[in-house]
Amino acid sequence: MSNGLQQRIIGALVLGALGLIVLPIVFDFADPLKIDRQSRLPAAPEIAPIEVAKAQRPEGGAKLGKIDSLFNIAESKPVVDVSEGFYGLNENDLPRAWVLQAGSFEAQDKAEGLMQRLRKSGFKAFVKTAIVESTTFYRVYVGPKADKRRAIAEKSKIDSNFATDAIVLQYIP
Length: 173
What we know:
There is one protein chain. It is built from four helices and five strands, in the order H-H-E-E-H-E-E-H-E. By secondary structure, it is of the alpha+beta class. The chain has a domain at 66-170: Alpha-Beta Plaits, CATH 3.30.70.1070. A five-stranded antiparallel beta sheet has the order 1-5-2-4-3, covered by helices on one side. The longest helix is centred in the first third of the chain and has 24 residues, at 3-26.
C-alpha cells in the first residue's frame, strides 16, 4: 500500500470518529414524542381560603365634610367683583364654582315650572329652598360651572330666552 493511500484511510477513520462524537452533541436524535417519566412534580401547596369581609353601609346618614360646604347654595353670594379669577382654586385650595340663580319664587309650582322649561332647553337646572325672614323661597339654579365665563354666557342665553334677570353666584366653601 502506498503512503498516500494509507494517509487517506487514516484521515477517513479520524473524520468518521469525530463525526460519531460531534454529531450526537450537535443534533438531538431523541424521540420528540417521548414523555419524560423521570422528573417529579412537587405536591400542590396547601392554601387555606381567606374570608373577605362584606362591605356594609355605615349607620345613619354619611357626611361628606368639605364637599358639602362646596355646594352649599344657601351660603352663596352674588358676584360683583370682576377682579376675581374666572377659574382655578380659591384661598382654601378648593375649586371655584359658579351657578346662576334664574329665579326665586314663594310658590313651589312656579319654581318647578321654570326648572322644567330650563331642562327642556338643555340647561342643568335644580331647585333649592331658602328661608329668608321666616318666609320660604324656592330658588331655581342652573349649573354649577367651573368657568365663570361659561356661566356669564349662559346668563345671557337664559335672560333672553326666559325673560329673567339671572344672577351669577359663586359657591363659598
